[in-house]
Amino acid sequence: MGEFELIRHYFRDRVQRSDVRLGPGDDAALLQPRDGCQLVMTMDTLLAGVHFPHDLPPHAIGYRALATNLSDLAAMGADACWCLLSLSLPTINRGWLDGFCNGLFQLADTAGTSLVGGDMVKGPLAITIQATGQLPAGQALLRSGAQDGDIIAIGGAPGEAAAGLKQWQRGQHQGHLVERFCYPEPQLALGKQLRGQAHSCIDISDGLLADLGHILEESGNLGATIRLNQLPTSAALAAAADTEQRIDWQLSGGDDYLLLFTQPASTPLPLGCTAIGEIHTTPGISLIDATGKMHSPHGAGWQHF
Ligand code: ADP
Ligand code: MG
Question: Which tens digit of pLDDT belongs to each residue from 174-219?
Fold first, then answer.
């Protein structure tokens, strides 16, 4: 199968959104944004061995590659509309491509996102996806809007993906935690619900503390208190580790792709969200344990450089 046949078979002849005037096949895609909307763009690269284990099934790789991008759109409060895929493959392996595409399009179809173009090169396994969303002008959720007195809330139970990755590396390739690593769910509906309500928002890719740090810094060097006994803990996570390891995963483990946001204390939280602390003006993050004791955090999350 040649390059063009391959593109046609795997990527081209798919049902597209009605606002895709021209999808894969021409020199570039042609899209029709809604009147009065702003475009929201993001891009993420996944490298084998860095962002996912070499032995992860292609289905999970395809799903995850799109999920990490759509999560960025969710964190802005955007609808996820279109994406581009750049695929670097060492060889043409039909079985691998079948799995990869099934995973990618499973999420694309659920999220209402169309793949409108891309590129293919021969090289080490690497996947880059560029995703574009849209939202009513002026309504984007930014990292920079947190205010003194805001509550800090999270869209689910953190730490599960880090625990799942650890299990995968130890050879345990099944179970709830592994699923959470392989198939993160971008919180698009929550992001949309938070428009006009949250003062600031980010998705947790590098760990709760590290990503909260970005909100604090971008919001004018504010500070935060996190109450450890309020961190949502899933039964699966509690069963997988002792308390210290669990809290470490919850605070510093990446890959959860949950939304972390701040909003006025008086506003009710959306369903499924939990208040875990508050914003204040004294810079830095304080952790308060179940007995009321203060800790300062060590290990601030994953950084590449
Ligand atoms: P060009 O040489 O003009 O850049 P390509 O041969 O790279 O064009 O691509 C031809 C068409 O196929 C383009 O419309 C491109 O968007 C699409 N395409 C190529 N690779 C992919 C891919 N991995 N996924 C989706 N569409 C793709
Ligand atoms: Mg061209």
Answer: 999 999 999 999 999 999 999 999 999 999 999 999 999 999 999 9
Residue 208 has phi, psi (to 5 degrees) of -55, -50
- Residue pointed to by tokens 């972390």: 260
Non-local (6+) Cβ contacts of 170 within 8 A are: none
Any ligand 1 atom below 6 A from CB of 87:
yes
Residue 93 CA to ligand 1 centre (angstroms): 18
What is the C-alpha to C-alpha distance for residues 152 and 209, in angstroms, rounded to an integer?
12
> How many A from CA of 25 to the centre of ligand 2?
9
The overall pTM is greater than 0.85: yes
Which atom of ligand 1 is the closest one to the Cα of 26? 14
Within 13 A of 74's CA, how many CA atoms are on the CB side?
Answer: 25
Please state, in angstroms and rounded to a whole number, the distance separating the CA atoms of residues 241 and 228.
Answer: 16
Spatial separation of the C-alpha atoms in residues 42 and 81, rounded to whole Å: 12
Q: Which residue has the tokens 């699923």?
A: 179
217 CB within 6 A, ligand 1:
no
- Hey, which residues does 275 pair with through a beta bridge? 153
C-alpha–C-alpha distance, residues 59 and 126, integer Å: 14
CA–centroid distance, residue 20 to ligand 2 (Å): 18
* Cβ–Cβ under 8 Å, residues 189 and 79: no
Dist CA 6 CA 76 (whole Å): 34
pLDDT given for residue 161 in this prediction: 97
Q: What is the pLDDT of residues 18-60, one digit of tens each?
A: 999 999 999 999 999 999 999 999 999 999 999 999 999 999 9
First to last CA, the chain: 39
Above 50 in pLDDT, residue 301? no
CA 277 – CA 153 distance, rounded (Å) = 7
4, 5, 6, 7, best to mutate for ligand 1 pocket (most atoms within 8 Å of CB)? 7
